[in-house]
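Hi, here's the filled form for the chain we discussed.

Project: internal
Contact: R.S.
Residues: 152
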Amino acid sequence: MNVLVAIDDSTFSDYAIESVVERTWPEGSKFRLLSVVEPFHPEHAGWHTSYLSVAVEAQNELVEAAKRLVNDRVKRLTLTFGKPNVSAEIREGYVTDTILESAKEWPADLIVVGSHGRTGLTRLLLGSVSEAVVSQAPCSVEIVKVPRKQKA
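And the returned structure, exactly as it came back:
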């Protein structure tokens, strides 16, 4: 079984990883951690071209932070499942699209994502990655939520 775990730097992703680690999986299961860095948009650099180099540097820092995040989380999965069964990738792109592309390319049998549990206006404005992944995924999807008592 190929299990794709999409993560970001949040408690919600940590719960998703723990959910995967705490279970028994079929022999030969493979696990891939995926972190997606949103692409740089030149319009965010403002009108001055001198801002462009700063924005590109900031994008590079985001990619480096994603690498550190993924490497740290890979260690957690490797302790449980062994190095040959765990891989990782960092991609730049739009989060939902990139998760779906990775799931198709690998190919994943299951996608695991943490849910931020946004509601109301924040959900409307920010969208729901997990909901979009569920509706378009080429395989099963598990959404891991933080227990209510932990949110408070």
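Let me know if anything looks off before we file it.
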